[in-house]
Amino acid sequence: MRKDFINDLSLKLKIVYKLIILDSLGSVSCAEFSSVDKLSLIIIGRNRYKDKDSLTKGFLHELGHSLGLRDESPNSEAALCLPGPPNCAVTREEAENLWGDLIGKGDRVGYFEGCCGNKDYIRPTIASLMNNPEEASDFGPVNERYLRQELMQKSGKGMASKK
User: Fold this and answer.
1) Which residue has the higher pLDDT, 117 or 9?
2) Structural domain of residue 103, as residue ranges?
3) Residues 90 and 119 in one domain
4) What is the total count of domains within the chain?
5) Which of left, alpha, beta for 117 (phi over 0: left; psi -120 to 50: alpha)?
6) What is the tens place of the pLDDT at every residue in 95-139?
């Protein structure tokens, strides 16, 4: 089926879903950069991960992309992506507008060098599932706020919009 047909059908039926493929023999993991309310594809190559915990974190990283989070890796070998809300800013001013209100409310949020494979862009945390899934234990405050707001809004519960 063509993707535009599936999207049209999803809109008419008010169905939004993420298609997840677990490739037990593969080593490639990826997700279509999307948003909470769009159909997208997530592929998890099981052989890329050494154990169940790393597979879980890899899945959460790819799920984050399918929900609208950008890759926070400063590494230029990483797949390049376009910067933007909620977690990758081109300038310090943009970063301040996106997550400046979380600065000083804990020690995890700041203005750290590199995201989307570009060392000049700015990310909100040193370690999150979006930049270091092997070491991080969560998405980080900026990403979690975004995910919570988007999911609450889509579930009809609605929250006051934050930058």
Assistant:
1) 117
2) 71-163
3) yes
4) 2
5) left
6) 999 999 999 887 799 999 999 889 999 999 999 999 988 888 999
